[in-house]
Amino acid sequence: MKKIWIIIKWEFLNRARSKLFLFTTFLFPIFLVGILYIPTLMMEIEPGNITTVALVYEDPISSLIDRFKEKVDSSFRLGNGNPQYLFNRMTNEVDAMDSVAKKSFDGYLFIPNDILESGVVNYYSHSLSNIKLYNQLRRSLNQIVIENRMIEQNIDVALVGSLSKNIVFETFEVDKSGLASEGDALISFFIPTLFVMILFMTIFMSGQLLLRSVMEERTNRTI
């Protein structure tokens, strides 16, 4: 048994000095955490160019569309103060689809007359990789549609908005001296996750190597 521990110690020290062990133990977990965090970081980056969107709709819902455009224009702005979205009306989907294919527009939004009843709209784009873009359009249009439904039912939109206002949930960390400081949820999640992944990779990589070395040593002794 004593000799087995000597072998384990020798194998561990020998493997721990290798570049592969150092990479898989320290750099690979950081790489994995980066893969998880970078998409979230990219979602927070503000766009630098105006997004052009064609709108396909009919006259009966023109007032709803006007409110939708006003909502988007007031909510989303570029860093230089210009509107983030530029809307243009098109009469039919065929022309809109052709314009998107030729990249005259970044995308087009088809809004049917029965949107208040069906709640279904279609967004077409030559690239759907920018999730933030069409989520902003979806949320804005969804809010306008809900407000229109409430207006049709004689519900006070301002009162509903006031009653459904979200609370502000602030977090603070208390140290050993009893002082409170504003907590950082990202750091609180990132650091423990990184250490757990490093520990996992260390056990996973070294455990296999050590077990194989011990088995080889015992096999050689048996032979």
Termini separation? 18 Å
- How would you name the CATH homologous superfamily of the domain at 49-163? Periplasmic binding protein-like II
**Strand percentage:** 5-15%
The first-level CATH class name of the domain at 49-163: Alpha Beta
Main structural class: alpha/beta
Strand order of the largest sheet: 2-1-3-4
Q: Tally of extended strands?
A: 6
Give the overall form.
elongated
CATH architecture of the domain at 49-163: 3-Layer(aba) Sandwich
Residues in helix, %: 55-70%
Low-confidence stretches: none
Overall mean pLDDT score?
78
In DSSP terms (H or I, runs of 4 or more residues), the helix count works out at 8
Describe the main β-sheet briefly: 4 strands, mixed
Q: Write down the Rg.
A: 29 Å
CATH topology (fold) name of the domain at 49-163: D-Maltodextrin-Binding Protein, domain 2
H/E series: HHEHEHEHEHHEEH
